[in-house]
Amino acid sequence: xxxxxxxxxxxxxxxxxxxxxxxxxxxxxxxxxxxxxxxxxxxxxxxxxxxxxxxxxxxxxxxxxxxxxxxxxxxxxxxxxxxxxxxxxxxxxxxxxxxxxxxxxxxxxxxxxxxxxxxxxxxxxxxxxxxxxxxxxxxxxxxxxxxxxxxxxxxxxxxxxxxxxxxxxxxxxxxxxxxxxxxxxxxxxxxxxxxxxxxxxxxxxxxxxxxxxxxxxxxxxxxxxxxxxxxxxxxxxxxxxxxxxxxxxxxxxxxxxxxxxxxxxxxxxxxxxxxxxxxxxxxxxxxxxxxxxxxxxxxxxxxxxxxxxxxxxxxxxxxxxxxxxxxxxxxxxxxxxxxxxxxxxxxxxxxxxxxxxxxxxxxxxxxxxxxxxxxxxxxxxxxxxxxxxxxxxxxxxxxxxxxxxxxxxxxxxxxxxxxxxxxxxxxxxxxxxxxxxxxxxxxxxxxxxxxxxxxxxxxxxxxxxxxxxxxxxxxxxxxxxxxxxxxxxxxxxxxxxxxxxxxxxxxxxxxxxxxxxxxxxxxxxxxxxxxxxxxxxxxxxxxxxxxxxxxxxxxxxxxxxxxxxxxxxxxxxxxxxxxxxxxxxxxxxxxxxxxxxxxxxxxxxxxxxxxxxxxxxxxxxxxxxxxxxxxxxxxxx
Length: 637
Prior knowledge:
mainly beta
């Protein structure tokens, strides 16, 4: 799981659809698409004998495209386009064929699919109708599992693709499209190192929705979101984050240990923010993402994990994450107004200071709760989980940090009150949610007080939360040796509760102070976030105005994390947590510090160097300390 935080600046536009000029379909463009693909496959596998299967599959996909068009005087359009698509992040997505054999099972998975196509169409002033066809290709993984050994092989296969589409201009630089595409990848022969052979065919039918933006190479194309209808904002971000550490002292390791021999890993996230104003006070937000990469040691081994961009799922190729999609309704009560700046999760404009905002859909709990101006966004500021978030807040989330819920916020000039209900994970560290509404779930309340101290603004937030979840008990597991530390065997409806105190205080116009204290009762297994039952964190954020770099930032922070008595006894006995488990435990509090320098290359591109020092990783005084070095490149458009 990773941090799920706002990461880009959106740009409002002042071009109503009715006032947009006739669209020029010629020239270069880039875009993104979202689709559902379904198809069938036939596999013949030889593993000492012949085994045949027929499979039907379907998955949501997303990707990018780029192309170039020429419009003839007759309005006939000639074009060429290349595209690349990736399956959904859910583990079962991307499966093409599963073939049981005498000795094991061969699974054929789709990692990506792309095409290079010609387009022929008719370009009306605002509409484009076209046919398309060309070369299709797909990257696959063949994974063989058996009791004796595992084997895998990558394969690239080619075929052909054809389809039809319609596109409509929604602004001077933007168009929306719908497409139907049929792809046939022919027959592919693969032989694994074990000698197993596979011959398979598959085809896919795809329904796509897409957005395209024209590219102006004259140098006058500075704002990505220009040229949109006035009720629509589109922006995006891309973040590449690499982390590494040298070998450290570790006399023993377990399944969930940080590997002691040193390593380097990286993650890459790409986000698009599509925000639309539907009616007075009504807004729709959609935030599709492509995520790729690995956390250090596959995102285990630390209570305060080192990267908020690391997922609890490993993605060797980009995967489509629908991320946020929610409806927001604001009810203004009149009186004084304020300006809301455009952002990834906020349409710009005027709003009553006194207002009630209701939000329903898929989003992150921390999108609404636990705001902090100085430590909140691992794509821009601190990276460690227990610094940018309250470590002991076991908030509802799937493996990439998102949940489904409803919230209400009452805002006044000097305070705000927020309530929320979210679906709870069906089991610990899962992508599935418990659908026993209200009997299971997470209830959250937050009060935010705004104030001035010595002429500088500050905010104090207090959060209380209760989780009703199907979860296991540390003590019940320990008290029954026959369970062999299988905490899943003790799962039943249980309550977990906790609180957070969150402070942010400006010390000057360039220096800010932050701090968090979080706690939970520590009796039941962690459901979604990380193995922390109490956490104290704080630090400083310093802007570079005093040394002539006003857009640069220095961050200095630290955290002390702890486990409850039941939790530490369970880990010491050899139990496995969500992120920790060395097989045994010489318990001591996990202590860490983090320092970073964010260098603004341009107003929209920032490079960051980061250093973290962790003492007693995963609360184990027998292991570590660990020095973690990070480099991050973050761009916004």
